[in-house]
Design goal:
By secondary structure, the protein is mainly β. Helices cover 10% and strands 31% of the residues. The N and C termini lie far apart (52 Å). 46% of the residues are buried. The N terminus and C terminus are likely disordered. It binds calcium ion (2 copies). One calcium ion (CA) binds next to loops.
Amino acid sequence: MSKTPVRSALRSPLLPMVSALALAALAGSAHALDTRLVASGLEQPVYATAPVADGRVYIVQKEGQIRIAAPDGTLSTFLSIPVARSSEQGLLGLAFDPGYADPTSVGYRRFFIQYSDSGNGDSVIASYLSNADGSAAVVASRREVLRVDQPNFGNHKAGWIGFKPGDANNLFIAMGDGGGGNDPQNNGQNRNTLLGKMLRIDINRDDFADPNVNYAIPGDNPFVGVAGTRGEIFNIGLRNPWRNSFDRQTGDLWIADVGQGRLEEVNIVPGSSGGGQNFGWRWREGNINTPGIGGVRPAGLTDPNFVYERSFGASITGGYVVREAGSELFGRYVFGDFVSGRIWSVAGDGSQGPEAGEELTELIDNGAAGDLGNIASFGEGANGELYIVDFGGKVVQLLSPIPEPGTWALLLAGLGLVVLRGRPRQAAR
Ligand SMILES: [Ca+2]
Ligand SMILES: [Ca+2]
């Protein structure tokens, strides 16, 4: 595992003034990124978010619960529902309505989840309302929005849902290819199924008389009116886009698609794009023809922004472009890998893979919240705080990496030596 222990220190404008002694002291002590333990003792957490800046973090557990971590780490249960939970099934996604905290909004107190139906394993999007103080979901408020039939495989259920900044009407939904090796039903390229796609639906209108189907197809979706293509589709050719995010400053959609046997990949849909990209699965895995499947690269595919191979990890967990004010990682994309447990920051324009980025794993493990294991997800707070979700039962907040108090003391001691050693020369002039 490569290490970059002095990345913060090397950027300090003070360094040219500091003696070799102070530099050595700094390099020896800046081995951690500051972290805060949000909660521990969780059962298979897979997501974390905070819709309001009140100190509470909402954490999704795969087996069907949403827990609230209070500022002191105390846990309470916000929602508990039955879900199918074998393999990659479960309660997988959570998105608070952009109007959640606005009493004048149609989305006031509303949130959305994606989960696997406990009976037949279908992927279900449903909405709920919370109670007045946000401490518990109102179970009776449940409203089914969309249901996608799933084949009889337990894997590739994707799960992420989210809203694009500035667009309160349309919910984006990540759907995996339904599972199995090599996408046996070719769902990723089948435009008549919602599997293997990024979807975009209007949750404030209803095109369907069916009381259990409650959404509308946005008129500006890329395939509206195109024969043989479902209007809900925003992007095609995805395998298992487990964790994705919008850059809250640019509106870019970062899709992290889990690879099969060779390559993990990241794709960016620019904020200005109306969608319609074909990201290639199952013909393409990353930037190669899928071994055993692909022939000649089909025309019109969009290759990933970057890929990585098995020496880095085996299941990408997409993260966020950091937009927390004051963070030294501001503008960089932070993501990880579930299997290797490694975490990187790379350029915020998608031009770098992990080999060209900065590995943060060791720096985070050495922080106050301790070692992380399987990285299941990242999450973002109301002010852009970055959370890291450890599937083993922990959520950690990555604090803006500033030197620790002990580092500053050593740095100042080093500066003092410089000043003391400089004085006689000044006096001699
Ligand atoms: Ca309806
Ligand atoms: Ca692809």
